[in-house]
Amino acid sequence: MESTRKQLIDLLEKEKGYVSGQQLSDSLNISRTAVWKHMNELKKDGYQIEAVRKKGYKILSSPDKISGNTLQWGLETKWLGQKLIHFDQVESTQEIGHQLASQGKPHGTVVIADAQGKGRGRMARNWHSPKGKGIWMSILLRPDLPPMRAPQLTLLAATVLAKMVREKTNLHPQIKWPNDLLIDHKKVSGILTEMQAEHDQIQYVVLGIGMNVNQQLNEIPQDIRHKASSLKIESGQEWDIQQTIQSILRLFENTYDSYVEQGFEQVKKEWEHFGYRIGEEVTISTMRREWQATLIGIEPDGALRARDKDGNEEKLYSAEIHW
Ligand code: BT5
């Protein structure tokens, strides 16, 4: 169901001139007072609206900054992001995700921040999250799955990001196992899946997505400039962050729903389509060792299969790939 405010914005944006309060109230089947109240809410969220007696309302400009409301108005999802919390600045949306989970917030709750002070990657690595330049968001999921299937959610999220980029550009996104989205060999996005489990059941998952969107090259920290990039750098154009978030959430919901209904097989196929260096020789390292191997693909459970030069095959659940 589209929200009334979203419909109001659509009506006002369709008309180049003024739309009378009566016309809006007729089209939306709400009272004139309700129209007026909605207008005030829109103004609070940064819309500049002109109201002229006997003519009606007109949008002068849309907000240049996102908010929980503006994000939700264009959201075409059934459950994902129906509860959505937006912050200007947090330490890490992952932390907030865990807090919300322990407060019992529902499956599909989304936390988004314009900036993170202590964005984190895997193994307590740092994730650079400058203000207004990217998507820093965490999704709270309560899947009815055993803990061993949690890594599949990371792979699922990576295919969603790759599909979003493919949908909107001519670029060729690739996924480096397990959690990096690359464009032209550079990391544009990373995923961090953290889970709380008890017995043989996942209690909840906080799935973090960090995506560099509008950074220019000089806005990427120097120490990672050789291996990191943004959608803007790769596509040569500025992106609408709000629409990009909405597209990711829509694709995520669709992909997740079919994963729950039909299992991992389709995600596996999509992942392998985008898989980076599959069939090629790479260097793999774990805490204990480093070796050369050919990447074969992913297993039905999401593990990476690799073959060393003696022909021994191994399933990997956690490792770093280098080349
Ligand atoms: C990841 O870790 O790639 C997972 C990143 C998840 C970030 C999201 S943002 C929303 C949510 N809230 C959080 O606090 N985190 C999640 P990993 O594979 O360990 O990669 C980390 C490494 O990527 C760092 O050690 C750097 O080398 C590099 N890196 C840091 N910031 C980057 C950036 N903005 N873009 C590309 N690479 C980056």
From TrEMBL:
UniProt keyword annotation of Thylakoid present: no
Keyword Ligase part of the UniProt annotation: yes
Positions of the BPL/LPL catalytic domain: 85-260
Classification lineage: Bacteria, Bacillati, Bacillota, Bacilli, Bacillales
NCBIfam families: birA_ligase
DNA-binding region: 21-40
Signal peptide boundaries: none
Annotated catalysed reactions: biotin + L-lysyl-[protein] + ATP = N(6)-biotinyl-L-lysyl-[protein] + AMP + diphosphate + H(+)
A matching Pfam family: BPL_LplA_LipB
EC number(s) from the headed UniProt entry: 6.3.4.15
Organism: Halobacillus halophilus (strain ATCC 35676 / DSM 2266 / JCM 20832 / KCTC 3685 / LMG 17431 / NBRC 102448 / NCIMB 2269) (Sporosarcina halophila)
PROSITE patterns: BPL_LPL_CATALYTIC
InterPro entries tied to this protein: aa-tRNA-synth_II/BPL/LPL, ArsR-like_HTH, Bifunct_BirA, Biotin_CoA_COase_ligase, BPL_C, BPL_LPL_catalytic, HTH_11, WH-like_DNA-bd_sf
Domain of life: Bacteria
UniProt keywords, alphabetically: ATP-binding, Biotin, DNA-binding, Ligase, Nucleotide-binding, Repressor, Transcription, Transcription regulation
Function: Acts both as a biotin--[acetyl-CoA-carboxylase] ligase and a repressor.
BP GO terms, sorted: protein lipoylation; regulation of DNA-templated transcription
GO CC, any one term: cytoplasm
Name this protein carries in UniProt: Bifunctional ligase/repressor BirA
